[in-house]
Structures are given as structure tokens and as C-alpha cells.
From TrEMBL:
Belongs to the EndA/NucM nuclease family. The keyword Transferase does not apply. It comes from Paraprevotella clara YIT 11840. This is Nuclease, EndA/NucM family. It holds the Pfam family Endonuclease_1. Keywords: Hydrolase, Nuclease. GO terms for molecular function: hydrolase activity; nuclease activity. SUPFAM superfamilies: Fibronectin type III (SSF49265), His-Me finger endonucleases (SSF54060).
Length: 781
């Protein structure tokens, strides 16, 4: 028998009772699994969020002052033991705003999730950088980073045969972060199509339920139980609720997670399972059921859901003499417990608002709900939606009820003069099919009206809608950047290669953009003068960004804030990696080329000549990030990817990922060469590499050459077939950390075989470890 989570101890002994929030959660009682999760999703949407950043009132750091201020005035840091003082309402030096549930997992889009205080915490900058966008988990190998509060390293949490890099919080915060992840997977379950990146998709699935992968939910359930809610977490829940108007239900009622992901998914959730009192959860007592705008000629046909418990005699529905009626007048106890959706109808002879009271009556139980419907003697036209007023576009969408008359509608859009006379918008009235239309050619800060009519066949109007008023706002400025995230790599003691960000500004108060970063990142307007702040002017503005020299290997993370008067700030995430093996690291995440026509493209690490080659991000493109190179073999055409710039400091070892495009392409071979004289002559690295279907592997080669190095990749094979190449990496000459070949010995010993990228291949006797594998370097241990 499955274990049913007992809530009674939590309510009786902890005295939780959700700070009097029982009524807030009534709509979700009686539900389980996906229905419970989606009902919570609809319930806990934030009413507002603070602007992201640290610029005073209304920004994230002003929220942290309320949510994460210790009694002694210092910052509560869940990621390190470093003690820091608040800086008024501004950012604290040495600290970042940390997205616990990494924002890269939904593409860095600045939306409610990006700004949601339930997912944001003040964090030590170093710990935040090392945490990066890795999944949460248990570090099972020697940590690469451990400051006593945050650990980063390899983990078997995902799969015992395939270690991944994770971050692990301190025991005292594991439950807090577990309930944060439950909240994010629930509040933003509608982001299913946005989930992305290798790290993100280790954590979540691209669906609304269960969203969290089983290994994640199981781990977080264990953490939540081991580290129960305390006063610090309850107080933060109250503080965030006061700012955003929503709550984290997994703090108020931690047992909820078990009804969604755990061992109670076969049972309906109730705040108090022991209650024997009759009650209805939906609709709530006294809650008005509003059926909205309806056509007088069609009458009302709406839906009403009723759900409750402890009503053994069922319920009778009484609408009085109101004209309302339902398809059922008596409900059984089973129907009420499961939840029943009724069809409610009402007809009346007069237009206007029609109101009544529904009485739900059982044995010793009465429950009243006001009912409201507004009838239009004609076509119900609805409030405008998708109102847009920018420099480049001014529009709204008009919509109305389908009257089922089999005729086109006539849409009239107009303004009114001081005397109230209509001034028709050019091109209107307009005859349209369907029940919605986009209206364009509008003026900012102007009030428009629209009506819809059906012709009577004799040049008149058989039916006309209500008049809808649409107020166009002032122009919203266009202020955008062509990047939301930048990745930098370098070796200790050397600055990274710079990357360019293009900013577009239209309709702003001043055409000046200021870029601000924190060390070790630097910005420049001209590529010569570098600092933590730079300004550029014009409608098309270009800034350069780089990671300054860092003395040791490690990860760092930061943000570039782009500001201009009269527009919201743009946040660009910055991620830096210092690794002596990554003196050159090309990810192809910047640069654009969407055709096979020969051309040159500047990407992350170098400028490349691409012939019969493009940068792709289709579903069939194999890649490590969002983009990779796609090379197509074609008869009589040269297919090449060639560096047009030299890498200095030579090359100890070369690594890259490669594999066949999609699941159908075959018969393509890859040749890799390097040059020490600027591309005049080429020396072989690998000739005619062949690939198996479905493989995406990392290849490594020892070059061990000094001087100026550049690379060339070329493809031959079946015409129109393709391969992908990504993450080309070179270490400096003399690092001594390059590729080594593993020779076969001790023939009868059982060993594991891995690729150089750490991917497990198989288990076999040492004498057979490499048998049947294509020629390459492998790790055998």
C-alpha cells in the first residue's frame, strides 16, 4: 500500500495553518497530480514584480532589503559565509542577484520569472559564478568548488553511469531551495516550450506536467522533508507576498509537493484531511460567478464548476425565479467530491445586466453565490486585446462573438470629435470574415472606438454590437540588444577575446546608451579604452565587452546593464570561464549565417570563412548550446570551415564536437588540418573521420606546436548530406594538459570505456575494450 502523507501533525503541532491563508488555497482543495499543479499555477501568478536590478525603489535590491535583511542589518546570503552590509536600496558590492532556477533555462527572457523574488536571492559573486547555470544536485566526487555553503562538482544524481556537473547548497538551505524549485516548476509550467539548454533539460521536461524530471523531484522531495520550513522561510514568504501579491504554496503547505510529484499522487489534497464539516471549495462562499457579455438573441449558455466534500446527502440547486437554470438540479456526494461542471442557461427579454443568487442547499448546509450576466441586444463585442504602441507599430485586436449567421461582419473603427460625432478611421468600415481583426494605422495617445454589425441584405444593418472604447497609450520606445547572454573563455592572466553587442534605440528621450558591468568584466565604446562603464550614441549603437584577466582558473558570472532615459533597462547575462585548456574556445553562439553561400562570419573566438557551411539551430542540428556549424557535402563544391585569424601561443591540444546531422544523413567524412603560416600550407590532424548515426562526440588530438595556429575543417561525401561541428577548443602550447592516448594492457581485466568528453561507451574486458570502435582516443579505466 502506498504511503499517504499525513498532514495532521503539520497543522496541529506546527501550528502552521498557512498564516490564515486557508481561503487563498480553497480553489485547489480536492485535486491531485496535474489538476492540482495547474490549479496552483493559475492561483499563484504574481500580481506584480519588481524591476530587475539594483537602482533603488522598485528594483530587486529594494525587495531584498525587505526579504533578506538579517536582524543585525546584514545581508542573508544562502550561498556563502561572507558577511556584507546592505547599501541602502542599491546593489551590494561583491554580490549578485542570483536566479536559483537558472534564467538560461528559459532563454534569459526578461519576464515575470526573471524578476520573481521567490526565485531571486542575494548571493556572493564568486559562489554565484561557480554555481553558474548548473543543475541542482548532490556532489558525489571531489568538489571543484567548496566555500562551506555552496559546493560545485561532479554528481551521480542524474545517472550513476554518466556524471554531470551540479551545485549543492548547504544542508540548512536544501529544503528552502527544494520548495523554490517546486514553486518555479508550478508557477511557470506554461513555459514548457521555452525550456532549453543542456543543463536546463537535465532538470525539466518540455511539458506542463510533471515539468520536473523524476530524479529531480525525488531529490527535492527528500530535501524538503529533511529540512522542513522554518520561521526564516515563512517570514520571507510573507515579505515576498506583500510585494508581489502571491505566495509560495510549498512553504505554506509543504505536503502539496507529495500530491503532485510524490507518494500521495493517488489522493486528493485537503488542507485538513480530518475535517468532517460540509464545505464547498468552488465556487467560494459569496463569490460572484460572472458569465460576462452575452447576446440577447442567443441567451446564456455558460459553465459552472462545483467541488466540495462531506455532503452525504448531496446538494440541491435553487435559482429562484431568476430565469437561470442548470442541466442538473440535484448533485450527488460523489459528483461533488470529484467536481462537476454544469451547463447554466438563462434567457431574458431585456438587454442589460441580469443578476440572481444561486442557493446550494444540503442537509444542514447552505451556500450562496451571486450570478451576473450582461446581455447585448445585438453582437457582443469584447474589450480590445494586444494593444501595441511603439515607434514601429500602433495596433490593437478587435474581437466579437460568433453569431453563426453565415455572413461577413462589418467593422467600424473611429474617433469622436468634441461634439461626439464619429470620425471614421481611413479604410473603415471594412467587411470581414471571422470574429477578430487587427486594426492598424493608429495614433498614440488617442481614444478609438469600434462596433461590429451584420447586414440585413437590403443595405441596412440587421444587428449591431455594443461600442468598445480603446485608449492607445503614449509611444513605447524601442530599446533592444542583439544578445541576451555572452560567454567568454580565457586562460589565467589573459583577457578574453572581446564580443560586440548592437543596441537599437528608437523613440527614446536621449539617444545615449550607458553600459555598466562589474569586474572582472569590462566594456568599451571603441575597443581601446576599457572600464566598467561606457557610453555610445545614435540609433544603432555598438559596444564591446570582454572578461578581464583573472589570475586563477574558475567560473565567474555577471551582468551588463544597458540604460537609456525613457526606456526599461536591458540585462545581458555574462558568463566567464578561465581554463588553461581553453585558450581558444569557439561556441558559435554569436555570429549569424543562415545560407550555404560562401562568406565570412565573426563568432565568439575568431573570424571564419564558411563555404557550403552555415550556423544552424534547427531541431536536427546537433549542438551543445543553441547554435552549431552545419556543413553540407555537395558534388563539385568545396565545403570548408576555415579560421581567418591566427591563434597566438601555439596549440598543445585540439578538441571539438562533431556528428551527423539529424537521424537520416549518412556517408559524410570530416578532415581537419592546421596551418602555421597563415593558411599558405596545411598539415593534417585527422583525415576522413567517419560518423555513426546518432553519435555526438568530442574528439581530441595532440598538436604540440608553437607559434601562430589556424584551423580548417573540410567535408566530403554523399551529396546534400550534412554534419555538425561545435565547441572547437585549443590549449596553449606547453600546458602539458593535452590529449593522451590510452594503450591497452592487462587483457582479462574488466574496464569501463569513456570518450574524452567523459561519455560512457561500454564495459568490456580490457583486451576487447576498443574492439569495433572507430579509430580515436578513449579513456579506459
Amino acid at each position: 500500500m502506498r504511503k499517504l502523507l499525513l498532514e495532521f501533525w503539520c497543522l496541529a503541532f506546527c501550528g502552521l495553518m498557512a498564516y490564515g491563508q486557508e481561503d487563498y488555497y480553497r480553489p485547489v482543495e480536492g485535486l491531485k497530480k496535474s489538476e492540482l499543479k495547474t490549479a496552483l499555477h493559475e492561483l499563484i501568478q504574481p500580481e506584480k514584480v519588481l524591476d530587475y536590478g539594483g537602482k533603488g525603489e522598485g528594483y530587486t535590491w529594494s525587495g531584498f532589503v525587505v526579504t533578506d535583511r538579517m536582524p543585525d542589518g546584514t545581508v542573508r546570503d544562502r550561498y556563502s559565509n561572507v558577511v556584507r552590509e546592505f547599501n541602502g536600496l542599491n546593489a551590494v558590492e561583491g554580490m549578485n542577484i542570483e536566479h536559483s532556477f537558472a534564467n538560461s533555462w528559459w532563454g534569459h527572457t526578461v519576464n515575470n520569472a526573471y524578476c520573481d523574488l521567490f526565485n531571486l536571492f542575494p548571493s556572493d559573486g564568486t559562489a554565484n559564478g561557480r554555481k553558474s547555470n548548473n543543475p541542482i544536485g548532490v556532489v558525489t566526487e571531489t568538489p571543484a568548488f567548496d566555500n562551506g555553503m555552496t559546493r560545485v562538482g561532479k554528481s551521480a544524481s542524474y545517472c550513476a553511469d554518466s556524471l554531470i556537473t551540479v551545485w549543492e547548497p548547504a544542508d540548512e538551505w536544501k529544503g528552502d531551495f527544494a520548495r523554490t524549485y517546486f514553486y518555479m516548476a508550478t508557477c511557470y509550467e506554461d513555459y514548457a516550450d521555452l525550456w532549453q539548454t543542456t543543463e536546463g533539460l537535465l532538470m525539466v521536461e518540455k511539458n506542463r506536467y510533471p515539468t520536473l524530471r523524476p530524479w529531480v523531484s525525488n531529490l527535492l522531495l527528500a530535501w524538503s522533508e529533511a529540512d522542513p520550513v522554518d520561521d526564516v522561510e515563512r517570514e520571507r514568504n510573507e515579505a515576498v507576498s506583500g510585494i508581489q501579491g502571491n505566495r509560495n504554496p510549498f512553504v505554506d503547505y509543504p505536503q502539496l509537493a507529495s500530491y503532485i510529484w510524490g507518494d500521495s499522487t493517488d489522493y486528493a489534497f485537503y488542507i485538513d484531511r480530518t475535517s468532517t464539516s460540509p464545505e464547498l471549495f468552488v465556487p467560494g462562499e459569496g463569490e460572484t460567478v460572472d458569465f460576462g457579455l452575452q447576446a440577447l438573441s442567443k441567451g446564456l449558455e455558460g459553465r459552472l464548476t462545483i467541488r466540495g466534500r462531506n455532503l452525504p446527502g448531496g446538494l440541491a440547486l435553487d435559482f429562484g425565479q431568476s430565469g437561470f437554470e442548470a442541466d442538473k438540479t440535484q448533485l450527488t456526494e460523489d459528483e461533488i467530491v470529484r467536481g462537476v461542471t454544469l451547463t447554466v442557461r438563462c434567457r431574458t427579454a431585456e438587454a442589460g445586466v441580469h443578476e440572481a443568487v444561486l442557493l446550494l442547499k444540503g442537509d444542514g448546509f447552505e451556500h450562496r453565490n451571486p450570478l451576473r450576466v450582461e446581455y447585448v441586444d445585438g453582437i457582443p463585442a469584447y474589450p480590445a486585446r494586444d494593444v501595441v504602441c511603439t515607434v514601429n507599430a500602433q495596433r490593437f485586436t478587435a474581437s466579437w462573438m460568433d453569431m453563426g449567421e453565415g455572413s461577413d461582419y462589418t467593422l467600424a473603427v473611429y474617433t469622436k470629435d468634441e461634439g461626439g460625432r464619429q470620425q471614421m478611421l481611413e479604410g473603415y468600415p471594412k467587411t470581414l470574415a471571422g470574429v477578430s481583426a487587427t486594426v492598424e494605422g493608429l495614433l498614440p495617445a488617442t481614444t478609438y472606438y469600434y462596433t461590429v454589425s451584420l447586414p440585413d441584405g437590403e443595405g441596412g444593418e440587421a444587428m449591431v454590437s455594443n461600442e468598445v472604447e480603446v485608449r492607445m497609450p503614449e509611444v513605447t520606445p524601442v530599446f533592444t540588444a542583439d544578445a541576451s547572454e555572452l560567454h567568454f573563455t580565457s586562460v589565467p592572466g589573459r583577457v578574453s577575446s572581446p564580443q560586440t553587442v548592437t543596441v537599437t534605440a528608437l523613440g527614446v528621450d536621449q539617444y545615449v546608451t550607458t553600459a555598466t558591468v562589474e569586474a572582472p568584466f569590462e566594456v568599451s565604446a571603441d575597443g581601446k579604452e576599457w572600464s566598467t562603464k561606457a557610453s555610445v550614441e545614435g540609433t544603432e549603437q555598438r559596444l564591446m565587452v570582454r572578461m578581464g584577466a583573472m589570475p586563477e582558473e574558475g567560473m565567474t558570472e555577471g551582468e551588463m546593464v544597458l540604460s537609456t532615459p525613457g526606456a526599461e533597462d536591458i540585462i545581458v547575462s555574462l558568463l566567464g570561464e578561465v581554463d588553461k585548456k581553453k585558450a581558444f574556445f569557439e561556441t558559435f553562439e554569436t555570429g549569424f549565417k543562415n545560407s550555404y553561400k560562401e562568406g565570412q562570419v565573426t563568432c565568439v573566438a575568431a573570424q571564419w570563412r564558411m563555404a557550403q557551411t552555415l550556423i544552424g539551430n534547427l531541431a536536427d542540428d546537433r549542438k551543445n548550446g543553441d547554435w552549431s556549424v552545419r556543413m553540407q557535402a555537395k558534388s563539385g563544391v568545396t565545403t570548408e570551415l576555415e579560421m581567418m585569424e591566427n591563434k597566438t601561443e601555439g596549440c598543445d591540444s585540439l578538441w571539438f564536437y562533431a556528428g551527423l546531422y539529424g537521424e537520416k544523413d549518412t556517408g559524410v567524412k570530416l578532415t581537419v588540418e592546421y596551418s602555421l603560416d597563415g593558411g599558405m600550407t596545411w598539415l593534417p590532424v585527422a583525415n576522413n573521420l567517419a560518423f555513426n548515426k546518432g553519435e555526438w562526440k568530442r574528439y581530441g588530438y595532440k598538436l604540440d606546436v608553437d607559434g601562430l595556429v589556424r584551423l580548417k575543417f573540410s567535408v566530403t561525401g554523399t551529396s546534400s548530406k550534412r554534419i555538425n561541428v561545435d565547441d572547437i577548443q585549443m590549449s596553449d602550447y606547453g600546458t602539458g594538459d593535452g590529449v593522451r592516448q590510452i594503450r591497452v594492457e592487462n587483457p582479462d581485466e574488466w574496464v569501463d570505456v569513456y570518450t574524452l568528453g567523459g561519455i560512457w561507451v561500454r564495459k568490456a574486458k580490457r583486451k576487447d575494450a576498443l574492439k569495433g570502435l572507430r579509430p580515436d582516443y578513449y579513456i579506459v579505466k
